[in-house]
Amino acid sequence: MNCGRETCFRHAGGLPRRLLCLGALAALAGSGCGSGLSTPRVIYLDGSFWFSSAGSVKSGLRAAGYDGAFETFTWSTFLGWGADHLVAARSKLRAKLLAGRIETLRRHNPKGKIHLMGLSAGTGLVVKALKELPEGVEVDHVVLFSSSLSARHNLVEALEHVRGRLYATCSGGDMVLASLPVNADGGVGRAAGQRGFVLPEGLSEDEKRQYAKVVNLPWRAAYAGLGWNGGHVRVSRSRFVRSVIAPRILSDKAFPLDRPMVIVEPKETPKRQEGTGQNPKRPNADS
Predict the structure, then answer these.
(1) 28 CB contacts (<8 Å, ≥6 apart)?
(2) In a domain? residue 57
(3) Tell me, what DSSP letter sits at residue 33?
(4) Other CB atoms within 10 A of residue 169 CB
(5) In angstroms, rounded to a whole number, what is the distance separating the alpha carbons of residues 37 and 29?
(6) Are strands 114-119 and 166-170 parallel, antiparallel or unpaired?
(7) Is there a domain that residue 267 lies in?
(8) SS3 of the chain: helix, strand, coil, percent, to 5
């Protein structure tokens, strides 16, 4: 990953861009150059401006037995909610910085576990960074807490870089998302953190199969006892992370209660002909 400041400021003309560039350099300081390359590793992106949920998420993972690395990717402009939600969450520069970090980790750990997590507008940057990854570079699991992306946001390009599952929590009682005039991706309508992701229109069959990796996790009354009352930020409470999120990402086995958005039926293999031990021959085109 390029850790130099020259490239950033050379392309930052004017004060607004320079301020965005400073935010990007803060992201580097928080998670890029000089930080470790070991796996397993969780990379966490907090929400806009005032949110500080990383500590409780890390605590929940530790309580569940996770002893790998946990790093926070700092992406805020520190200029307020509007600058983060409406500008920084869609920043291609920040997405490329995060993608570069992932690519470096994967190059050093081809089989190591790399998980991405984000809260609120931070989920927009998570998805955008996945789309920026080169072909063949993948993370393992992704967790989107209270995503402020549009429910119909097309995830296909991002899912191509996910080996395991993409989990998205959602709650109809999320009043923060209900009050948004526009979603983090610029779309309008209900956010994914309210209703879960839904299939976009016009997908091919192959694209729909990518959504077999997506599991919406809607709020349930039982989660209140784990600290999540359906609110926007409380989804990051350590007890909920320990009991609901950690078991899903710390095991290689599919979680038995998961309900993927799309069910992919296994392909049938040709049956052997009785008594021959051979597969049936395909008919010639002339027959």
Answers:
(1) 3, 97
(2) yes
(3) T
(4) 27
(5) 15
(6) unpaired
(7) no
(8) 40, 10, 50
CA-CA distance, 134 to 126, in Å (whole number)?
A: 15
d(CA 6, CA 197): 39
Name which of 198, 210, 201, 199 is nearest 264 in CA terms: 210
Residue 50 resides in a domain: yes
Quote the number of domains for the chain. Answer: 1
Q: How many CA atoms lie within 13 A of 81 on its CB side?
A: 9
Measure the CA–CA gap between 98 and 117, rounded to whole angstroms. Answer: 12
Contact 31, 105 (CB under 8 A): no
Q: Is residue 265 part of a domain?
A: no
211 contact partners, CB below 8 Å, separation of at least 6: 155, 156, 159, 197, 199, 203, 260, 261, 262
Using CB atoms within 10 Å of the CB of residue 151, give its burial: 0 to 12 exposed, 13 to 18 middle, 19+ buried.
buried
Provide the CATH number for the domain around residue 210: 3.40.50.1820
Domain of residue 136, residue span: 6-249
Query: pLDDT under 70 in the chain at which residues?
Result: 1-35, 50, 266-287
- Over residues 117-150, the pLDDT tens digits come to 999 999 999 999 999 999 999 999 999 999 999 9
Tell me how crowded residue 50 is: count the other CB atoms within 10 A of its CB: 11
Rounded to two decimals, the pTM is 0.82
Task: Quote the longest CA-to-CA distance of the chain.
Answer: 79
Residues 165 and 142 sit within 8 Å (Cβ to Cβ): yes
Q: Are 78 and 174 in contact (CB under 8 A)?
A: no
Instruction: List alpha helices for 38-91, DSSP H.
Output: 54-63, 81-86
